[in-house]
Design goal:
Elements lengths: L1 H33 L4 H9 L9 H17 L8 H10 L5 H17 L3 H15 L5 H17 L3 H18 L2 H17 L3 H18 L2 H19 L2 H16 L5 H13 L3 H14 L6 H16 L3 H51 L2 H52 L7 H18 L6 H12 E2 L3 E2 L4 H15 L3 H8 L5 H11 L4 H8 L3 H14 L9 H10 L1
Antiparallel strand pairs: 1-2
């Protein structure tokens, strides 16, 4: 009796589980039907699913795929592959071709969000492989469009153009005009970069007809912008380009230009020598990007400087150009630092892909073919190694020649400085004069005549340009003190009164640092090494009572001038 009761109870539990599983599968079917037209409703439906009722691997994989699809269609970026990995573990070796293609497609979207572009390309290639075995033309178009975007991010212009056109061909077959228009615009941008103006004009005409048919004003404006750029790049016709943009803005946006148009409008006005009109569009962009260090900010600041220069406002133009230079340096070092981990990650990914490919091929091919491939790889590696060694030897030779040249110039300089002979080689004197003139050119914000300073330098270095003067370092320090004193009148006397403990050399070094001279230039003027420079600078900071390490000597000067 107890056995019969146990069997009945077990049967009831099994029947209940089957009922729950069937109910969950119906929910998944309902979510899949709503996915295209109501993705938010599909996501809500999927969130109501009790995952414990998914007893089979296929059910769990299908839920993971649908949930990833719903998140993507609701523009919710996912930067972890935990969920989609469940779907891939099942669809990698089994399942309908369309679902397998979708699993790899949404896996690519996640890798793209994670900025793992190489892995994303691998996944989309697998998605394309399975999609080609189905009749889903819309999916093929999406995959081709994704390929184009990935190639575009990697600056593969030709490949991106071909994929945009391939995607347009798929969407044209099913009459999906919105996606067709977007891919045509993408292809037109690539034609412009490739300077294929004939094809650009052809597809521009087709895309414009579709945009007018859909009444897509944003697409029309994008096409007009591309047409204006074509006139500028192909024929340098700025007047017609400006007329096209102004007509489009007046017709579709009632005369209010979009912020994305500001930069090209200002560029056209600069080329037409109308800096006042250019600044009208540049100033909002300057305010909008304030505090950022991007390439857009760099271009905006540079063009603002050019416009101010054309207006004769040279001081403001100098400030903007100085900021543009600072942004350029920041971007260079930031991109250089960010590229190192990216290269390491790319190397690891490529190694993993190569290892997987090797394992697959080793199971398919015979030993003799594997040996031939190994010999070929070894030969290529040896050839690349020999080429690399040649490059290293050439680089070492260039470095050696560079160091020898530096040593020779330094020896000439030291010999000419310490010699007891009353004469000096004219070419050495000329090099020293040119160097000090360069220092003055990079730091000369004073109002005095530069020629007077040049004459003073020549008097310090030579007599009539051919013989050496017995110059002391104090005379050189006085030269830089004059420059700093001209920027901030009376500053030298105030410094001597406030800090009587400063020597003439320390005061001269203080002036050179505040004049934004480079460390190498200061070392050459003082005749010291870089390590000695740091020691002198620390002593100078100690005498100036600069205890905060974050405060620089130029900041100390600024604070001292404000007191």
């Amino acid at each position: 009796m107890k056995k019969i009761s146990g069997l009945l109870l077990l049967s009831l539990v099994f029947l209940s589980g089957c009922i729950d599983s069937q109910h969950t599968l119906r929910i998944l079917d309902d979510a899949e039907r709503r996915m295209t037209d109501c993705p938010d409703s599909a996501l809500t439906t999927l969130r109501s699913v009790d995952r414990r009722t998914l007893y089979t691997r296929r059910g769990r994989a299908r839920f993971a795929l649908l949930y990833s699809q719903a998140l993507d269609k609701n523009c919710i970026e996912v930067d972890r592959d935990t969920l989609i990995r469940t779907a891939l573990q099942y669809y990698r070796y089994r399942g309908p071709k369309r679902e397998r293609a979708l699993a790899y497609f949404y896996s690519e979207r996640i890798y793209e969000n994670m900025q793992h572009i190489d892995s994303a390309i691998v996944q989309i290639e697998k998605a394309e492989k399975y999609a080609q075995q189905t009749d889903d033309i819309y999916l093929k178009g999406l995959i081709a469009n994704t390929f184009a975007i990935l190639y575009e991010s990697q600056n593969f212009v030709e490949k991106a153009k071909d994929k945009y056109l391939e995607a347009a061909g798929h969407f044209s077959q099913i009459g999906h005009k919105e996606n067709l228009l977007g891919n045509y615009i993408g292809a037109i941008r690539k034609f412009r970069i490739l300077k294929d103006y004939s094809n650009q004009a052809l597809y521009h005409k087709i895309a414009k007809e579709i945009a007018f048919e859909l009444n897509d004003t944003l697409a029309i404006l994008s096409l007009e912008l591309l047409q204006a750029n074509k006139l500028i790049e192909e024929k340098a016709n700025y007047n017609d380009a400006l007329k096209i943009l102004q007509d489009a803005i007046t017709k579709y946006y009632h005369g209010n230009a979009l912020s994305s148009y500001y930069l090209i409008l200002s560029n056209i006005y600069i080329k037409l020598n109308k800096p006042d009109s250019a600044l009208i569009y540049l100033q909002p962009l300057v305010d909008l990007t304030e505090g950022t260090q991007t390439r857009d900010r760099l271009e905006i600041i540079y063009m603002t400087g050019v416009s101010l220069k054309k207006q004769g406002k040279y001081k403001q133009a100098y400030e903007y150009n100085h900021e543009a230079l600072a942004i350029s340096d920041t971007l260079y070092f930031r991109e250089k630092e960010e590229s190192i981990p990216a290269l390491k990650e790319k190397y690891k990914t490529e190694q993993l892909v190569m290892q997987n490919l090797y394992l697959k091929k080793s199971n398919r091919y015979q030993l003799c073919i594997a040996l031939i491939l190994l010999i070929a790889i070894l030969f290529i590696s040896l050839w690349l190694s020999s080429q690399r060694k040649k490059q290293i030897l050439l680089q070492e030779q260039k470095i050696s020649d560079y160091r020898n040249a530096i040593s020779r110039l330094k020896a000439e300089y030291e010999t000419s400085r310490k010699t007891e002979s009353p004469t000096i080689a004219p070419e050495i004197a000329e090099r020293r004069i040119a160097f000090l003139k360069q220092i003055l050119d990079t730091t000369a914000h004073y109002n005095h005549d530069k020629e007077l300073f040049y004459t003073k330098i020549e008097q310090l270095l030579t007599q009539n340009g051919t013989s050496q003067t017995k110059k002391g370092p104090n005379e050189m320090f006085l030269l830089f003190q004059d420059i700093l004193n001209d920027r901030h009148p009376g500053i030298i006397d105030r410094l001597r009164e406030t800090y009587p403990q400063l020597t003439a050399q320390e005061l001269g070094m203080y002036c050179m640092i505040c004049l934004e001279m480079s460390k190498s230039a200061i070392c050459l003027v003082l005749g010291i090494r870089l390590k000695t420079y740091y020691n002198y600078r620390n002593i100078l900071r100690s005498k100036l009572n600069i205890t905060n390490e974050e405060v620089t000597i130029p900041q100390h000067l600024e604070t001292f001038c404000q007191q």
